[in-house]
Amino acid sequence: MSSDEKDEKLDRRAFFTLGIKKTAKAAVNIAQARVEQRAKNFIRPPFAIEELDFLLKCTRCDACIKACPHEIIFPLSARLGVEVVSTPALDLLSGACHLCDGWPCVVACEPQALQLPSDLEPDEEVAHPHLAIATIIAQTCLPFSGPECGACGSVCPVPGAIKWDMTRPTINEEICIGCAQCREACITEPKSITISTT
Predict the structure, then answer these.
(1) Whole-angstrom Cα distance, residue 104 to residue 122?
(2) Is 134 in contact with 162 (CB distance < 8 Å)?
(3) pTM for the complete prediction?
(4) Residue 16: its pLDDT value, please?
């Protein structure tokens, strides 16, 4: 075989290898986009890794569910799809994430589908993870119709997440992590704070 033929063979091999890599990357990107779109229907526990990796790592062992002292982690039902069935999510409409000391749900996750940041300095405190979006419904929130309340502000664990315009609360979306402690404390029925993924 001549050197020209060898070079041509190597060029063809490189071309096909590059093509396979690009196709594989495109397939992963499509899968990632699809699972992220589906994940807008639920809220993962604190420090969940990216959704596609989460689905590949999570063994559906229920360890994080059992470790939650506030019982707000639950397994997703089959109606949301076979890919996510029995994986954990947060029920922030019935309760709140209390950002527990030591993060027991994360520590309980052996396959590390839930992971604390690995780049922390010794003695550095773990920053609160962003979980969801909290929104105040002004039409039913008591301070917007006259009476003072303040129940939400007294329990918020994130300084500056709830701001006050005189006696009326507003949520600073840049600071709020969506833990739902404000919703849990809200005294109106139905609650005057909604929790969503988007």
Answers:
(1) 19
(2) no
(3) 0.80
(4) 57
